[in-house]
Amino acid sequence: MKKIVFGNQRISIEDIELIAKKECEIDLNRTPEFIAKINAGADFLDRMIAEHGAVYGVTTGYGDSCTKVVPSDSYYVLPVNLSRFHGCGLGEYFDAETTRAIIAVRLVSLVQACSGVSFNLVEALFNLLKHDILPRIPQEGSVGASGDLTPLSYIVAALIGERDVVLNGTVMPAADALHTCGLKEITLRPKEALAIMNGTAAMTGVACLAFCRAKYLADLSCRLTAMVSIAMKGNEYHFDPRLFAMKPHPGQSHAADLVRKNFSSKIQASVIPEKIQDNYSIRCAPHIIGVFYDFEPTLRSFIET
User: Domain of life here (predicted)?
Assistant: First the structure.
């Protein structure tokens, strides 16, 4: 079974799917060097507050309230209030696989050590995955590229022991789930709620799983095309590589190649085509399926970066 270590390797779309489906082992880089790298961001934030006195979302309000000054005795209250303010999601809850994908994607971002969070927060987020403590995240409420603020607030809430989560298939208060697993609620440092919430981990987690499903369906469609062609005594020359070599569409060529690879030479040799030209749904399948393969690299670059 593959082992994925956060903070120690590049994590791909396929890795997120493995994590979501619990088909791999997971771990967190806990070397002194990595811990120091993460904590350096939190230390830098502390220096900024002490030396400059003006840090967005720490000494100021959020959004249009950035002109509002936050008193120093509220620095630790502000992130908690931010998460509570956004606990207004609607609709059905994300399923377990999608929730794991969302948490994993957020963790991938935070281990880059560019968000000003502490290692304590990173470890607490990892522990949600490790112990499969899954926040109940409503599917509706994101504001898109400006951030999955509302969905991700449910992750923050779970870390501080608020709202409900699912543990071993049972819905329970987050605090109870943490205690059951031998964990404690964390105290959010300044900016840490913002670091989790002001991102696109929810839509990216969903996109990772959608990408993998699309890839699976495209590959499956090629196999089914071959099966139907054989069953209907189709003409295999519709998938001849010489035809597709004349077209500047590599996705079509790849799809046709997959169809050909799924032909059994023994079976196909005994098939005498009943028609010189098969139906569109068979002979033009690579043209339709190939669109995904053409855009696969672009989609991957959008999602993984």
Answer: Bacteria
